[in-house]
Design goal:
Blueprint: H1 6-9, E1 33-38, E2 41-46, E3 73-76, E4 87-95, E5 103-109, E6 117-122, E7 128-135, E8 140-145, E9 155-162, E10 171-175, E11 178-179, E12 183-185, E13 199-201, E14 213-221, H2 227-232, E15 246-250, E16 259-260, E17 270-272, E18 285-288, E19 291-296, E20 304-305, E21 317-326, E22 335-339, E23 347-352, E24 360-365, E25 372-374, E26 384-392, E27 395-400, E28 403-409, E29 421-422, E30 435-443, H3 449-457, E31 469-472, E32 482-485
Antiparallel strand pairs: 1-2, 1-30, 3-13, 3-17, 4-9, 4-14, 5-6, 5-13, 6-7, 7-8, 8-12, 9-10, 10-11, 14-15, 16-17, 18-19, 19-30, 20-29, 21-26, 21-30, 22-23, 22-29, 23-24, 24-25, 26-27, 27-28, 31-32
C-alpha cells in the first residue's frame, strides 16, 4: 500500500486495472489542459509539472495529517532527558497552512503548569519553533524561532538541534538542510526540572495542537548532529541511516493499524490515537454504472492534491469541468470540486453551496468572505452530474449537463502559491465533497459552450479509448470526437458509460 511518505512525494498507489486510459493529447479539447484525473486512470495528469503519467505530489489522501480529531502518535513516557541533554530532531513534513496556535511535530513535555521538557513545532507564522523548558509558568525556559515559512503546501525537511548548554545559542534550526535565521524567545533556563513525558508526535498532551498536514518520517538523536549531517539528510525521500546515536526513528510505513515501528533499535513502538490518521491510504475507488470514481467522504477528509498552482495564479482565463456523483446533499456545508484557496483566502473555489439550495458557485478571493458568484443550478440528483465553469477576465459562465446555467461577474483571479486540490478546500476540512469524482479537468483558457456540451455528452472524450471502443462521428462540433461501443447504444446518454 505504500507509506505516508507518498503524501510528500506523490508515490503511486498500486492498483489492478484491466486498462488505464491515457489522454489523447492530439484532441482539440486538450489544448491548454493543465490538469486531469479520471476514475479509470489511477495516475492524474499535471501537465504544468509532468509529462503523462508523471507522479503528482500529494496524490495520497490527506486526513488532516495528525490534526483531525486531536490525533497523535505516542511513544510513551520515554527519553525523559534533563535539560542538559543534547539532541537533534529531523522530520519530513508537508504542511498545508500555518496553524492558528501551534502545529506540533514532536513534543516531550510534562503537564501543567510547568511543562518541563523539549519540543519543536510550527508556529502561526509558519516557522519552525523549539523550546527547552524547566518551568514555563515562571519563564524558566529558552526558545528559538526560525524565519522560513514551511507552511506552503510543499515538502520540507526540518531539523532542530540543542547542545545542552541551556542557552538560546545552543538551539539551531534548519530548513531543507540550510541553517535558518533564528530569534530568541523566553528569558533564561536555570532550573533543573526534567520532563515526565509522554513523548508525542503530532500533538501535545493536554492541548489540541494538531498539525495541519503530513509527517513523512521522524528521526531523533541524543547528540548534536553536524550541519553537514543535516544537509546530507535533507531529502524527504531518504530517511537518515540509523547509527549508535539514533534513539527514535519512525518511517510511518505501515499505512494501517494503530502502531508504528521504531527503527532505531530502542523498541519505542508508537501507538496511534486512531487508525484513521494514516495519510498513506489511497483514495477509495468505487465502480458504478458510470465507471470508476474517486470516492470522497466528509468523515475522512480525503482530497486529491495536484501539487502546484498549475500556472493558474493570477490568470485571466480558467475553465473547469467535473463529472461528479453526489452521495448526499448537505444543507449545512459546502462541497468543494476544485480549490486553490489556503485557509479561505488567496485563490479560487469551485463548489456546491450547501446552504443556498445547492447552486454551483465559484469564488475568487484574497480575503475571507469574498463574494461568490452563483449559477442557476438549484437541484442536483444522486446520478452523475456534469458541472462546468468558464472564467474570462471577470465574466463567469456556468454549465450543467452541457447546457448554459447562468452567467455573472467576479473579481480578478488573485495570485496564489498553494497547489490545486480536487474534492476539498485545503485546510477547510468541513467542505469536502461527499460522493465520487468520475472526471476532473482544468484548463487555463476559455472553453466555448460547444466544448462544454461535448464534454458533458461524451464521457471520456479526451481519453484514449480501449480496444472495445472506436472513434465515432462528431456530435456537436466539427472538431470533437465522440466514442461509441462496437455494439450497443451510443455513448451520450447518462444511462450508458
Amino acid at each position: 500500500m505504500g507509506s505516508p511518505l507518498g503524501a510528500l512525494l506523490g508515490d503511486r498507489p498500486t492498483f489492478s486495472r484491466p486498462s488505464i486510459r491515457r489522454i489523447n493529447w492530439s484532441h482539440p479539447l486538450t489544448r491548454s489542459l493543465v490538469a486531469a484525473v479520471r476514475g479509470e486512470s489511477p495516475y492524474p495528469v499535471n501537465r504544468a509539472k509532468d509529462s503523462y503519467p508523471g507522479p503528482i505530489p500529494g496524490w495520497r489522501t490527506c486526513v488532516g495529517g495528525f490534526a483531525v480529531n486531536n490525533s497523535h502518535i505516542s511513544a510513551g513516557n520515554v527519553l525523559l532527558w534533563p535539560n542538559t541533554q543534547a539532541w537533534t530532531g529531523i522530520a519530513a513534513i508537508k504542511v498545508m497552512a500555518a496553524p492558528a496556535e501551534a502545529g506540533i511535530i514532536m513534543c516531550n513535555v510534562g503537564g501543567v503548569p510547568q511543562y518541563p521538557g523539549y519540543e519543536f513545532w510550527i508556529n502561526p507564522g509558519g516557522f519552525v519553533h523549539s523550546r527547552v523548558m524547566s518551568d514555563i509558568s515562571v519563564n524558566d525556559y529558552i526558545g528559538a524561532c526560525g524565519s522560513t515559512n514551511v507552511c506552503d503546501g510543499k515538502p520540507h525537511v526540518i531539523a532542530v538541534s540543542y547542545d545542552g548548554s541551556k542557552t538560546f545559542a545552543g538551539i539551531k534550526i534548519f530548513v531543507d538542510g540550510v541553517a535558518d535565521t533564528t530569534t530568541s524567545e523566553g528569558a533564561s533556563l536555570t532550573g533543573t526540572r526534567k520532563t515526565t513525558g509522554p513523548l508525542w508526535v503530532g500533538n501535545q498532551i493536554d492541548h489540541t495542537y494538531g498539525m495541519n498536514g503530513y509527517i513523512g518520517w521522524l528521526s531523533l538523536s541524543n547528540i548534536v548532529r553536524s550541519s553537514s549531517y543535516i544537509a546530507s539528510n535533507a531529502n524527504v525521500a531518504s530517511i537518515p541511516a540509523v547509527d549508535a546515536n539514533t534513539v527514535l526513528q519512525y518511517r510511518f510505513q505501515e499505512a494501517t493499524g494503530t502502531t508504528t515501528a521504531d527503527e532505531s533499535g530502542s523498541a519505542l513502538t508508537g501507538t496511534l490515537s486512531s487508525s484513521n490518521i494514516w495519510s498513506g491510504q489511497p483514495i477509495p475507488w468505487q465502480s458504478t454504472k458510470y465507471g470508476m470514481g474517486l470516492v470522497f467522504n466528509h468523515s475522512t477528509n480525503y482530497f486529491l492534491d495536484m501539487g502546484s498552482p498549475l500556472g493558474l495564479s493570477g490568470t485571466s482565463a480558467l475553465s473547469i469541468f467535473v463529472r461528479v456523483r453526489h452521495d448526499a446533499l448537505s444543507t449545512l456545508q459546502n462541497e468543494a470540486y476544485v480549490s486553490s484557496r489556503q485557509g479561505d483566502v488567496n485563490g479560487f473555489y469551485f463548489y456546491r453551496s450547501g446552504v443556498q439550495s445547492n447552486p454551483i458557485q465559484v469564488r475568487f478571493g484574497t480575503t475571507a468572505g469574498a463574494a461568490a458568484n452563483s449559477s442557476n443550478i438549484s437541484a442536483l440528483d444522486f446520478n452523475v452530474f456534469n458541472v462546468g465553469v468558464t472564467v474570462n477576465g471577470t465574466a463567469v459562465s456556468y454549465y450543467g449537463n452541457g447546457k448554459a446555467a447562468g452567467t455573472g461577474t467576479c473579481g480578478a483571479m488573485p495570485a496564489f502559491a498553494g497547489s490545486i486540490c480536487l474534492g476539498a478546500e485545503p485546510n477547510f476540512f468541513t467542505d469536502n465533497l461527499q460522493g465520487a469524482l468520475i472526471e476532473g479537468l482544468i484548463w487555463n483558457r476559455v472553453l466555448s459552450a460547444t466544448e462544454h456540451a461535448d464534454l458533458a455528452l461524451n464521457p471520456g472524450i479526451i481519453w484514449e479509448h480501449p480496444s472495445t471502443w472506436r472513434v465515432g462521428p462528431a456530435t456537436t462540433s466539427s472538431t470533437s470526437v465522440s466514442f461509441r461501443r462496437t455494439s450497443g447504444p451510443r455513448v451520450g446518454s447518462r444511462s450508458v458509460y
